[in-house]
Design a protein that fits this description.
The chain has 182 residues and is an alpha+beta fold. The protein has helices spanning 59-80, 142-154; strands spanning 9-10, 16-20, 23-27, 32-36, 41-45, 49-54, 83-90, 95-98, 102-106, 113-116, 122-126, 133-139, 165-168. The strands form four sheets. The chain has a four-stranded antiparallel beta sheet with strand order 11-12-7-13, covered by helices on one side. One of its GO terms (cellular component) is cytosolic large ribosomal subunit.
Length: 182
């Protein structure tokens, strides 16, 4: 029995939910999202909550039960409040620039890396004196936001000796000791 899957999802006032065939559509103040439902999973939409039920108790449906409940919850939370990911550039000379949703990174390579972000993601770059540069990504789509943030981080992962690179805010990097002198 899925404990997460049994919890009903509350629908806020400004969010509209519609189910058509095997697709659930969620529309809110920040945007529109949809999710295709596969397997024997039933979505029941009441007045202001959504209940996810499974028809059969086989292994696949038990796995999908909690998954779809959390996907729907994240979609509703995203179109109502939105999500935010913060990245930090750590290293001498590491810079980031925002040119109308195009991220221009100077992270120690011989050339700048230019990333064009999807329209649903907004970008903000904070550069303060004596602090590391921060990249703040905001979106209503949690899946897309996570993919884009992971792609940016993968361009220069934090290295284990000095910790230089791109990392999430509050990410802890285990540092190795260097060579020991004789």
């Amino acid at each position: 029995m899925s404990r997460i899957g049994n919890i009903p999802v509350l629908i806020p006032n400004n969010v509209f939910v519609k189910k058509q065939d095997n697709i659930i559509y969620i529309n809110g103040p920040l945007g529109k999202l949809n999710q295709k439902i596969i397997g024997d999973i039933n979505i029941i939409i009441n007045n202001n909550n959504i209940i996810v039920k499974r028809k059969h108790n086989d292994k696949k449906n038990r796995a999908l039960h909690g998954l779809y409940r959390m996907l729907i919850y994240n979609m509703i939370k995203g179109v109502y409040n939105g999500f935010k990911k913060k990245l930090e550039l750590i290293g001498v000379g590491f810079r980031a620039k925002n040119n109308s949703n195009i991220l221009d990174l100077n992270i120690g390579y011989s050339h700048n890396i230019i990333i064009k972000l999807p329209k649903s993601i907004t970008l903000e770059v904070k550069m303060e004196k004596n602090k590391n540069t921060q990249i703040i990504l905001k979106s209503y789509d949690k899946q897309l936001l996570g993919i884009v943030a992971a792609k940016i981080r993968s361009l220069r992962k934090p290295e284990p000796y000095k910790g230089k690179g791109i990392r999430y805010i509050n990410e802890y990097v285990i540092k190795k000791t260097g060579k020991s002198a004789k």
